[in-house]
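Entry for the shared binder. Reason: the reviewer on the internal report wants the predicted structure included alongside the sequence.
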Amino acid sequence: TTKNNRRRRTVQTQSFMVDVPGGQVFVQRWQPASATSGAACPIVLLHESLGSVGQWHDFPARLAQATGREVLAYDRLGFGQSSPRSDAPSLQFIAHEAQQHFPALVAALGLERYALLGHSVGAVMALHIAAAHPAQCQAVLSLSAQAYVQPQTLEGIRAAQRFFADPQQWARLQKWHGPRLDWVFRAWTDVWLHPDFADWSLDPVLPQVPCPVLAIHGQHDEYGSPQFAQRIAAGVAHGQVLLLDCAHHPHRQQVAQVLAAAQDFLHDLAVAGAPV
């Protein structure tokens, strides 16, 4: 259990495996002992391209403390503690997560409604999920999402390739994914650097997102400019932008601001009468 001294709200943690098409995914739940409202829907976290449940560190517990809501995070198939994968990464992996794996997870967890918080490509997946499942997804908090492929995006990925060519840095990342890391890394670089992925864009999906979206982006994000957040907010039905003085990981680099923004965003929706 984790305790926040300021709010004095205890959070209980539980971990388990869930069956989805293709294997099992690892899930962790953070449940505040005293929720702000029994009707408040949980927040589901979607991790980045090299991410996992463990790499959220203490952010989920702090998010549960700040919002008084249950928080859930899972490792996508092939990542973290979920079942490994050997199939070649698909250029349609974002849509596949929204259409196949995530709905199976939601059904297994018995979730009728949820808010989503995604980081990087996890935020892109969250927007796809919101478009595909509008009756269930009540709100999206998007952290550092890509809206299309900028030269800066590709430069950032190539820089990461050079960085993780250092065996010491590779070993630091491997502690989260173990023998899955080769697949995890290729699933990121092979897709985003593929010439057939160069024209990928969120533009066709954004008009199909009816729920409120808060697009948070670091002004110094090494994988894309603030134009990404502005494009997302302008493309959805109800979008807001929050730019922060940080790089690609706002929930680590400006955690207090992200937590406050999440708390205010969800509270304002509830006050306005949204079933969130």
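Summary line for the report: Residues 70 and 104 are 19 Å apart (CA to CA).
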